[in-house]
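Quality-control log, excerpt.
Job 1 of 2 completed; input and output follow.
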Amino acid sequence: MKITRWKLISLLVAMVATLTVAGCGSDEGDSTTGSEDTNYSEAVDYTITGIEPGAGTSKNTELALEEYDSLEGWEANFSSTGAMLSALDQAIENKEPIIITGWTPHWMFAKHPDMKFLDDPKEVYGGSEDIRTGTRKGLKEDMPNAYKLLDQFKLEIEDMENMMNQINDAEPSEVAAQWIEDNPDKVAEWTKGVQEVDGRSIEIVAIPWDSDRIATAVMTEVLKNKGYEVESTPVDVAVMFETLANGEADATFGLWMPVTHASFYEKHKDHIDDLGPFLEGARIGMVVPSYMDIDSIEDLQPKE
């Protein structure tokens, strides 16, 4: 059969179009992100990946599940910070959807800079937060120099995040010691008017968040340089507040206010001293990779 020139061209165009459509279809089938038609709620199985059940972010997430119509029928999978970070790493490596409970400062934003907080129009998670220093009642009278040092302690969020990123490859004490050596002017502001002591013991309780680990490590080194013997004990949030309120511990750098630890704070505020923020500009909320085409909690869909 004779094939005319125009028929040949038509056949070639049809073949190219078919291959192009097939190729596009294959790409879309391999990816669950980047499409306006992606149902992210269904893709994450209507589940938010959280951290420890007792953490402030977890309590706020439980409240969000009640407050937002878009989260009707959803659940939060609370386990541990390590499990959440592992799930986040795996999802981003495979470019899969995931919704986590996140907070800043945290090194995960340095490791995965293309992440974003979902807008929270109902302000369930609050706005900008402070991380505050807390002490037991009576510390000011018992250890005035330690109290003065703790009261004068301040950190910029950039310094905090840089150190948090470094402790993935080094011990917090090593990172803290190097930062202190590199920032003598800042340390001098904290220690202004603080006299040295000879072997006084002070106990710090720290929740297992990297921000708290860094603040504890830095202040442990500074206190030791002033002659204190420092013991730091890792605890969960509830124990942190209880031990301060009962006078069983001396200080902490883990008071996230005014939202994250509000319920614990209200319960114990009359039995602890709040020295105010040592770091400003913290934030908590729901976080997603930037390749997910959603911007607000209200962009999610209820489970049918």
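Job 2 of 2 completed; input and output follow.
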Amino acid sequence: MLSHPITGLVAATHTPFHADGSLNLSAVEKQAAHLLHTGVGRAFIGGTTGESHSLSLAERQALAERWMEVTKGTALKVVVHVGANCLGDVATLAAQAQDLGADAISALAPSYFKPRSVSSLVDCCAQITTAAPELPFFLYDIPSFTGISLSMPEFLSQGVERLPTLAGIKFTNPDGMMFQQCLYHTEGAFSILWGTDECLLAGLALGATGAVGSTYNFAAPLYLHILRAFAENDFESARREQRRSVELVARLASVGYMGAAKAVMKILGVDVGPARLPHTNLDAAQEKALAADLDAMGLLSTEFRL
């Protein structure tokens, strides 16, 4: 189990590409610096936001190597997402993450040929944890993407017995009841990380102490305001800031979230390039309109920039 519970904001980082769509590892250093500057203590690399299903195994290995190289000796910790449909590839990525000195690993369940039971899911996870026996492991539960809806409390119950490095769950699941069941499972032994940025305040009210999200790449100060206001019982301020988050996410989603989120990074001076197909990207006019709207939301001030 996790010896150091993960708290605070964890940014699900973008994978940077050149304009032609090839991997741009030179951008990682600036990404890491930006996270540290805006108050983020951990990066979750190669996940959904990192377009992992659009990366080759070699690209994912190169990405992990670069992140660990850039963050060596800094306060920024790295969680490597290793999930894929091929469990052999997953094991390779997990073993590499351990060799590189990552803080933890996480994985989606295989989602083409799906595990149909909790026991089958645990079998899959056992292959992952065996490959990296020294790293805390987080299951990444996101039913809207994987199409897998299994009992996470039951997963923890079976995981206690069969997965010695199980540390918790990245919980990107709208089921608030299940979230609480997981949060207090085994006397609160697991880190259950809230995975819905636009509802962070709801997660805090349910007991969340750590959260993983894509908008923490470019709007971390907004969410730090929510965390502080909640801690101070200033719920009016917390709700106001959460509403800004909702407006931000809705604005990005209106033109294609992934491409728009990467455009925001460029606007803030951390160019991570375009999104890969099948995601779409913004044209120049759309980027200009987005920048104007971000400015109106107060999201282009110096606290949001490197």
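Post-run check on job 2. The mean pLDDT is 96.
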